[in-house]
Structure prediction request, 228 residues.
Amino acid sequence: DTAVSQTPKYLVTQMGNDKSIKCEQNLGHDTMYWYKQDSKKFLKIMFSYNNKELIINETVPNRFSPKSPDKAHLNLHINSLELGDSAVYFCASSSYPGGRGSPLHFGNGTRLTVT
Amino acid sequence: QQQVKQSPQSLIVQKGGISIINCAYENTAFDYFPWYQQFPGKGPALLIAIRPDVSEKKEGRFTISFNKSAKQFSLHIMDSQPGDSATYFCAASLVQAGTALIFGKGTTLSVSS
Prediction:
């Protein structure tokens, strides 16, 4: 019973395609996040939702659109994929909406490769 | 001012040795400083964390040392083991809700047996 689960684990697609990554957490947390880890392993916040409401929206191209149907799920849809989108995308959750010292629980990532 | 600077980028330590990873920050409003450990193919996992009102925190072989005046904190891994080989990230966050954890660029630790 994985706490934060992402699907798919690997995603290989061509430039210009549209793809989605799904995330689910069973920890009962109110806040979920998407982080991007580039080839140099740098982790950067993309979005955060608290109880289905978007609370963090970093400078991410609007080809990326998160969607939270309920507080246990946060999906990421990417339109018109580009080579530079190749990275590992991590979903995470926490008890509180950022700050306040609430630890993040990460999924195992989705490795996206755009060819 | 939102950056967390981490060094070294990579580190090789002999089994039984001490691994030391350093981080520095600028924003004095940061009030929570965790360290995350990431193994290949896995997501980062919280290892240990500290708040600025404490100068040191120890959990088993892992110790965080915190120097508020210097705006620096470091992770010490005592008696390093091959199983400690992983990427380590320091991070910092602000006190207010709705802000994200900001990560350092990571240190890849290799412990040789």
Observations:
- The longest strand of chain B covers residues 30-38.
- Residues 32 and 77 of chain B are 20 Å apart (CA to CA).
- Chain B has no helices and eleven strands.
